[in-house]
């Protein structure tokens, strides 16, 4: 929060580091609302977990970063590749961005309710 403004809502799982009194006090002192996923709510994180697994096996484990700054830069580059260009088998070998645009287009012209494109 020293680098960025305080969020309106902080969403976490119910891990002990997030349910500790000290952590809760920091959020409460800044009037940040707390949202916690239920215990064992694995579905809440499945997409992020898949992203991290892909990044580890397709980038991190293949390189030996010389420094933290190099790791940040290279992982940042991979994340910049992941949504616009990485093809996913579950999306018919389209990138997430291309798939989302196609779904939004088809929804608009197919007579069904259009999804918002972010």
UniProtKB/TrEMBL annotation:
Superkingdom of origin organism: Bacteria
UniProt-listed GO biological process terms: DNA integration
Family annotation (PROSITE patterns): INTEGRASE
Signal peptide per UniProt: none
Entry's Gene Ontology molecular function annotations: nucleic acid binding
Cross-referenced Pfam families: rve_3
Segments forming domain Integrase catalytic: 1-104
InterPro entries reported for this sequence: Integrase_cat-core, RNaseH-like_sf, RNaseH_sf, Transposase_IS3/IS150/IS904
Protein name: Integrase core domain-containing protein
Organism: Puniceibacterium sediminis
């Amino acid at each position: 929060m020293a680098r960025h403004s305080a969020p309106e809502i902080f969403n976490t799982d119910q891990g002990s580091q997030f349910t500790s009194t000290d952590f809760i006090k920091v959020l409460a002192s800044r009037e940040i609302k707390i949202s916690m996923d239920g215990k064992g709510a694995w579905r809440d994180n499945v997409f992020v977990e898949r992203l991290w697994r892909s990044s580890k096996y397709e980038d991190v484990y293949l390189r030996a970063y010389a420094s933290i700054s190099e790791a940040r830069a290279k992982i940042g580059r991979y994340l910049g590749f992941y949504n616009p260009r990485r093809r996913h088998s579950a999306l018919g070998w389209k990138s997430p961005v291309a798939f989302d645009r196609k779904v939004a287009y088809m929804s608009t012209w197919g007579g069904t309710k259009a999804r918002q494109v972010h």
